Amino acid sequence: MINRGMKIFAGNANIELAKAVAQELGIELGKAQVGKFPDGEINIKIDEDVRGRDTFIFQPTCPPVNQNLMELLILIDCLKRASASRITAVIPYFGYARKDRKDEGRVPITAKLVADLIAKAGADRVLTMELHAPQIQGFFDIPVDHMFSSPVFLRKFKEMAIPNLVVVAPDVGGVKMARAYSKSLKADLAIVDKRRVSPESAEVYNVIGDVKGKTVLMVDDMLATGGTVAEAAQILRRQGAKDVYVSATHPVLCGPAVERLTAAPISEIYVTDSIPIEGKEMDKMKVVTVAPLLAEAIRRIHMSESISQLFET
Asked: Between β-strands 201-208 and 188-198, what pairing exists: parallel, antiparallel or unpaired?
């Protein structure tokens, strides 16, 4: 049982995961009203005393991104003005992460802007998971704990004991993650050579490595439109892959993602519950929970214990 100093509050983005985390910690989710005024403005009220408490706000900034981000910022401001001793923003999925640099003229660095907003609102610390670009940690002027979902996935795949396995990076940017998985699973490594045509689509050209007659596990940080993974699965099959499995932390699943992934030659897709997937379910999609991992991180932060071992990939 955690001592009385901790309180966990949640916005509307992923209330079920927040409840699961609170249950893992043996505490009740904090009482708060998170609603809207008739004109659509967000209206929030904390319904219990938080003065001097160590508080955690659970809110991924998944779609609808702007609404969930504003809920997070207003919750932070609300707790700050209620004299909470420390406010930790728990953001299992960090939105606006794609714009992490100026890759062309006259574009914003939105990830830095959002980091500044969270810190300026009054957050003292951030706990997040599987950032789209790890360097975003450096955009914050407050401590950031960056978790990985790999311990959860690796435990699952080791239990499955998939024979003749090859871990595949769906693009060059995912090589580091794929290498970590291949090392832990004692599997071979392959890379899909991909050239992006537009932000919504990608054209796949070649596979670096041997996948013929083998079972493939593609690992990625998120499934957005599903274009990259669907194209990669097709070329892997053409290259002789026997089976294709996919692992992705964040099931964003926007646009035609569900249709693309349903039609793609993929046997099973494993995702976490960092983002709710109501209305986007697929028979081939399996959800593994990250509640115990996040709960342990929160417990260690609250007790001022090291959480570095939880960062391991």
From this structure: antiparallel
> Domain residues for 79?
6-148+291-311
d(CA 119, CA 1): 30
Kindly report whether the peptide bond that precedes residue 64 is cis, defined as omega within 30 degrees of 0: yes
CATH code (residue 102): 3.40.50.2020
Beta bridge partners of 285: 269
Q: How many domains does the chain have?
A: 2
Closest CA to 247 of 308, 160, 305: 160
Same domain, 158 and 281: yes
Q: What is the DSSP letter of 41?
A: -
CA count, 13 A, side-chain hemisphere, 177: 27
> How many Cβ atoms sit within 10 Å of the Cβ of residue 180?
17
Residue pLDDT, tens place only, 219-278: 999 999 999 899 899 999 999 999 999 999 999 999 999 999 999 999 999 999 999 999
Catalytically annotated residues: 194
